[in-house]
Amino acid sequence: MNMSQKQLGKAVGYSAATISKIESDQYQPPEHLLKAIQDILKIKELVHDKTDPMYIQLSAWQKVITSNNIAESQACYQQINKLPTSDYVHYESIYLLHSFQHFLLCFDLKKAGSHFDLIQQKAFHLTSESPYQYNKTIARFYMLQDQIKNSLAHLHVATQLNQESSQNDGDIYLYHAINYSKAINIIDSNHHARIANTLFQRTMNLENILLTRIIMIINTMWHGKIYESIESLHYILDNNPKSMNYSFIQYILSFGYFLVKDYESSLKYSRTAILSEQRPALKMAYLYLRATTFALIEDPQNAIVYIKSGLRLNQSKKYSYKLYILQQILERKGGSIEFLQKMKKEIIPYFIQAGDQVEVNFCHALLGAIYHSLQHYKKSSNYFYLTGGDSLINEILAKYPQK
């Protein structure tokens, strides 16, 4: 659209002199003025100067984030945040996206969540190359939140936006593999994990190569080959002592021992995982596993301690709900009207919306078992019809009868 400086200034409520200064780079306009100019001129973004030192610095930060180097990313984040905001006003949307990516890299879902609405609002400011990265990043956020349905939807959008990039992007296949593993869709998870592994080998991304192996080991557990999986995890643990995923491997090892009811070994590895893990969202899952283990060995006091520690982190809605459920069971409040209503009206609808059928099934089985213990057999049969029973639930309720 051809407009004079005077016409453009009048349209956005500023003088022609101000428009002239913007065009000659003598004035850095506020974000709302940039948006107004974009809207009037019907352009998606004001072209970024790729020789600008700030743009170069932000691009370098993006490369660090892509390499999964938390320490270097934190250094970049701190360095940029020491600068006055006027230094990156032209690149606010890119800065916000990279900050969001940084918080996800650190598994700090609370900080990432605080940026989420703003990131969505600023999405239209991104350059023509950025919508792919934006949707991929949002997919990762939902994946870490166990919002499987939304994560897969954004992965699909990213793939449609740039099919060439997505076909050569190991992260896209990795995120698919993780989502499908969470949903216990083992065939699709292993398929995507193998492709991701191949792509990461081309770039020698050792951490993600290791992560794809761990995902396939988790999938082997779901197939019932737990002792085989435990042996593989010990091998990986012994040979990768400096891996950023070391604590996560200990957690999966703890989970393997939990499944075979070797609770002493499970507690050993969950303890070391919790003590060494710096990423709060992951630590919340570790605390839930440890609390559940203490519940099963009939040590409710220790279980409650770890439940409260997890709830204080407040990083994941999924694990906040799971910790709440476990606490209510240990306090024998599972038969209360308040608990049953919260399960039906809040918790189950949340898991349905998230596409987390594993947790939906768990909740239905729990309600079926609770109603059965309360001799409400018709209600019990309705929930058991939806999902069947669950041996873990039966074992816990046998130890902690509900009122």
Could you describe the 3D structure shown?
It is a single chain. With 403 residues, this protein is mainly α. It is built from 23 helices and no strands. Helix 6 (92-105) packs parallel to helix 8. The radius of gyration is 25 Å and the shape is globular. The protein starts with a helix and ends with a helix. The relative contact order is 0.05.
What profile does the largest beta sheet have?
none
Pick out the low-confidence regions.
none
List how many beta strands DSSP finds.
0
Estimated structural class: mainly alpha
Provide a short characterization of the protein structure:
With about 400 residues, the protein is mainly α.
Give the secondary structure arrangement, pairings included.
Blueprint: H1 5-12, H2 16-23, H3 31-41, H4 53-66, H5 70-81, H6 92-105, H7 109-122, H8 130-144, H9 148-161, H10 163-167, H11 170-182, H12 186-203, H13 206-222, H14 226-239, H15 246-259, H16 263-276, H17 280-296, H18 300-313, H19 317-330, H20 337-354, H21 357-373, H22 377-387, H23 391-399
Helix pairs in contact: 1-2, 4-5, 4-6, 6-7, 6-8, 8-9, 8-11, 9-11, 11-12, 11-13, 12-13, 13-14, 14-15, 15-16, 15-17, 16-17, 17-18, 17-19, 18-19, 20-21, 21-22
Keywords, separated by commas or semicolons:
403 residues; mainly alpha; 23 helices
